[in-house]
């Protein structure tokens, strides 16, 4: 938009300068050259108004993003782009697609390693407004303390909504506190749910970790740290335009440990080699999630809609 305005300013300045030169020539040679009426150039019929549907490519991450009809930077992320990230964590998928979103993985910080906050443009997690179909989402009942990200704040847990339940995500990378309040200083993340009358899908993700450490302080090997995710969705239609979309997800992830060796010797056994005496990594998680989104038209101007979600997370 800046380049467009600059081009208009330069064009207007050039036209004004040219008009001034013509007027001066007419006055200087009024006795020799009859005055001529300047004719404005005809408008190009092929020039169409800017509808805002052009595709913007930002940086090295060549992802097509429509800026809609807003002067603010809006990223529109499709469900297909989220599925291609290879993770079922919504926060992790967003951080991989949108560079302005960060989803850190803290450890040993009370409950923040289980309910991870996401940040937008490096600001506090509670300064990013999260909407679900344009309605404010609920914050988690966890206060970030200690050395966690966003210490002293409570953020919305993005991972409570399965990624298969989403149709697209709209990310406003600009302050919108004038419209939404102080919790939108960093921007707005709008989660748009599926509204499918038919069809469905299923996804199974599996991965495992092998930890092998061999140093002068000692060595250890850990196998079998796996992560399994099974998710799916189904669309059901009723009435003329009614829909019910049900999504579910099951996650079984074992803990990972990146802790180094403790080289302090035991009190009763001097010279004991290094031992792993703590845990530092992702916690063990087993969770069940289900989400339903429904809506129908009652009359020409009245619509009935609603959504319901439930999650049980054991960590």
Describe the structure.
There is one protein chain. The chain is mainly beta and 315 residues long. The chain has two domains: 139 residues, Ferric Hydroxamate Uptake Protein, Chain A, domain 1, CATH 2.170.130.10; 115 residues, no CATH class. It is 14% helix and 36% strand. It contains four helices and 14 strands. The longest helix has 27 residues. The radius of gyration is 29 Å and the shape is globular.
| Number of domains as seen in the coordinates | 2
The order of strands across the largest sheet is: 3-8-9-6-7
C-alpha termini separation: 48 Å
Q: Mean pLDDT score, rounded? A: 75
- The CATH homologous superfamily of the largest domain is termed TonB-dependent receptor, plug domain
Q: Structural class of the helix and strand makeup?
A: mainly beta
Question: Architecture of the largest domain, according to CATH?
Answer: Beta Complex
Q: What gross morphology would you assign?
A: globular
Outline the low-pLDDT stretches. 1-43, 56-62
Total helical elements: 4
What is the β-strand count?
A: 14
Helical content (DSSP H or I, runs of 4+): 10-25%
Give the biggest sheet: 5 strands, mixed
Task: Spell out the helices and strands N to C.
Answer: HEEEHHEEEEEHEEEEEE
- What is the CATH first-level class name of the largest domain? Mainly Beta
Strand content: 35-45%
Radius of gyration using CA atoms only: 29 Å
CATH topology of the largest domain: Ferric Hydroxamate Uptake Protein, Chain A, domain 1
């Amino acid at each position: 938009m800046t380049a467009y305005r600059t081009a208009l300013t330069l064009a207007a300045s050039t036209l004004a300068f040219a008009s001034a030169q013509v007027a001066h020539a007419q006055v200087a040679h009024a006795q020799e050259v009859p005055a001529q009426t300047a004719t404005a150039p005809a408008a190009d019929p092929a020039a169409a108004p800017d509808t805002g549907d052009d595709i913007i490519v930002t940086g090295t991450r060549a992802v097509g993003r429509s800026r809609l009809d807003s002067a603010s930077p809006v990223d529109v992320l499709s469900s297909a782009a989220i599925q291609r990230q290879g993770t079922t964590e919504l926060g992790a998928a967003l951080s991989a697609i949108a560079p302005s979103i960060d989803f850190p993985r803290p450890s040993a910080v009370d409950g923040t390693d289980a309910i991870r906050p996401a940040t937008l443009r490096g600001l506090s997690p509670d300064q990013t407004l999260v909407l679900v179909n344009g309605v404010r989402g609920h914050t988690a009942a966890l206060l970030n303390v200690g050395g966690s990200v966003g210490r002293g704040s409570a953020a919305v847990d993005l991972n409570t909504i399965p990624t298969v339940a989403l149709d697209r995500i709209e990310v406003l990378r600009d302050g919108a506190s004038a419209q939404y309040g102080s919790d939108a200083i960093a921007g707005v993340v709008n989660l748009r749910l599926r509204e499918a009358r038919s069809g469905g899908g299923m996804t199974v993700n599996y991965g495992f970790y092998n930890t092998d450490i061999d140093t002068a302080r000692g060595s250890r090997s850990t196998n079998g740290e796996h992560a399994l995710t099974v998710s799916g969705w189904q669309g059901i239609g009723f009435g003329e335009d009614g829909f019910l979309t049900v999504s579910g997800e099951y996650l079984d992830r074992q803990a990972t440990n990146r802790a180094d060796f403790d080289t302090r010797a035991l009190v009763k056994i001097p010279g004991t080699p290094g031992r792993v005496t703590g845990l530092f990594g992702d916690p063990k998680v087993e969770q069940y999630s289900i989400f339903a989104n429904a809506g129908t038209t009652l009359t020409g101007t009245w619509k009935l809609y609603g959504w319901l979600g439930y999650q049980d997370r054991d960590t």
